[in-house]
Design goal:
The chain has 176 residues and is of the alpha+beta class. It has 2 domains: 120 residues, no CATH class; 38 residues, no CATH class. The chain has an 8-stranded antiparallel barrel. The protein is elongated, with a radius of gyration of 18 Å.
Length: 176
């Protein structure tokens, strides 16, 4: 299985009267979204915030991936924006009560609803692992956004000869 849904429902991203951005998941879990010196952070917080304005809201999926060449093997938070989902990666897992702040990577990627749902639910009743096997024979999605290491691992799974000496652009050509 490629994607496992850890949580899903509705989110709201709002700005407080003090200028802080707060992410609410199902009106139960609240996180401050902070720009730090070394990148963005997601910090667990309480619900006691004075909302000034709603920035975005919609459906969300919190998903853990394993061996999915299109998504890194880290928890992902997909936040709906229209017919697409904004991709956020939690490379050090989610904030907890004991470890309340975690690094957040806002990839800037807008992923289609179809791709997100196929990777976590499968397509037309298929399990996600079967869906991946069928799609992996076709053209991979958005290879240019992948790191060289991710492309190398995908090439390794497809037994591309000479992959260890290839540069990122060469790997993309071979995988397409």
């Amino acid at each position: 299985m490629n994607g496992k849904i850890e949580n899903e429902g509705y989110y709201e991203l709002f700005r407080t009267n003090k200028g802080h951005d707060i992410l609410s998941l199902n009106d139960k879990k609240f996180f401050a979204v902070i720009k730090g010196q070394k990148g963005d952070m997601l910090i667990a917080t309480d619900s006691d915030h004075q909302k000034d304005e709603t920035l975005k809201k919609g459906k969300f999926y919190l998903v853990s991936f394993e061996d999915d060449p299109e998504f890194r093997n880290f928890p992902h938070l997909f936040l709906q924006e229209g017919s697409r989902y904004r991709e956020w990666i939690l490379p050090n897992d989610r904030p907890t009560e004991k470890d309340y702040q975690k690094k957040l990577i806002k990839t800037g990627n807008l992923v289609s609803r179809t791709i997100v749902e196929e990777h976590i639910k499968g397509k037309e009743g298929e399990a996600p692992d079967k869906q991946y096997r069928r799609r992996s024979r076709g053209k991979p999605v958005d290879l240019k956004s992948k790191s060289r290491n991710e492309l190398y691992n995908l090439a390794k799974k497809r037994n591309v000869p000479g992959r260890s000496k290839m540069k990122k652009e060469q790997l993309i050509r071979e995988l397409e």
